[in-house]
Specification:
With 305 residues, the chain is of the alpha+beta class. The chain contains eight helices and seven strands.
């Protein structure tokens, strides 16, 4: 049986216990502070890494364009099968899609961050899918990037357009699925948008096999320089087959070379426009649709910002 502690011994024991508790508290505080600083450093390194990737991609020399986008767009036909084309050489010019008289040719110049493009897709996707499925029309999608300024420095519009080009090259017959999935998962303006890894995830959710180089293509932003060049070209030079139309805002929608001027969310108005243009193509008389309100398109950025 241990001897009873004296008052002084109990006091010394209490002081020693208090000292140990204080040391433990200080140790936890140092650890917490270290974790906080470490977290800040890690976060800063991550931001620097993202910015570095964007900078590297922005100064990357222009390389060959993506396969199946010789016109800087991909043509989707019946059964949602894409028309195949060779890649445009680094020093080459895009080749406009041949104009046809046996089918309606619809072209859409779009930005995956553009909310007006999202509204057009939501209102008119069913119409476009019916036209494609029946073989009445082809839809040629031109991904461009005019809203990089609205993605907090991550250049989401350009990265998304580059990702679309990757899908066009590696999985062209799944491009329509990817395109619709990107609008179904469209981020809001003034956000960072989706990361490259998240875009890969969108492709996989759409049932696309991202192995075999597709994921790598998206993650490295392989066609960012191509997307930037295609955007400048579309916004400053008359679009092939048009009367001087330029895609200086999104969406820019053409039907047999004629620009759709109606409301982007007016499905009936768009259907009437397609019918009227198709009637002109076949020589059949067709009542012109009533002029709709001008679409609230997303304009390209100006020097004034």
């Amino acid at each position: 049986m241990s001897e009873k502690l004296t008052k002084n011994e109990r006091r010394a024991q209490a002081r020693e216990q208090a000292r140990k508790m204080q040391e433990e508290r200080r140790r936890r505080e140092r650890l917490k502070k270290g974790l906080t600083v470490g977290g800040i450093i890690i976060a800063a390194v991550a931001v620097v890494a993202v910015v570095a990737i964007v900078i590297v991609n922005s100064i990357r020399p222009e390389g060959p364009g993506p396969e199946n986008m010789a016109s800087n767009g991909i043509v989707i036909g019946q059964e949602f099968v894409a028309e195949t084309t060779a890649a445009t050489p680094a020093d080459g010019e895009p080749t406009p899609t041949e104009k046809r008289q046996d089918i309606i040719q619809i072209e859409i110049y779009q930005d995956y961050m553009c909310p007006v493009c999202g509204a057009f897709d939501e209102a008119n996707r069913a119409t476009l899918e019916q036209l494609i499925s029946t073989g009445a029309a082809t839809v040629e999608i031109h991904p461009i990037s005019i809203l990089d300024r609205a993605s907090l420095g991550t250049k989401y519009s350009t990265r998304a357009a580059s990702a679309a080009a990757c899908v066009a090259e590696f999985a062209p017959d799944s491009f329509w699925d990817f395109d619709t999935a990107m609008f179904d998962n469209q981020p809001e303006e003034s956000t960072a948008g989706l990361s490259n890894a998240e875009i890969v995830g969108v492709a996989e959710q759409a049932g696309i096999d991202t192995s075999g180089g597709l994921a790598d293509c998206i993650n490295e932003g392989r066609f960012m320089s191509w997307a930037e060049e295609a955007t400048v070209r579309a916004g400053t030079q008359p679009l092939p087959g048009t009367d001087g139309v330029v895609a200086d805002r999104t969406p820019t929608v053409l039907v047999n070379g004629e620009k759709y001027q109606g409301g982007v969310d007016d499905a009936a108005g768009f259907q009437a426009f397609v019918t009227a243009v198709a009637g002109q193509q076949t020589g059949e008389s067709s009542e012109e649709p009533a002029e709709g309100e001008a679409p609230a398109e997303t304009p390209a950025p100006t020097d004034e910002g």
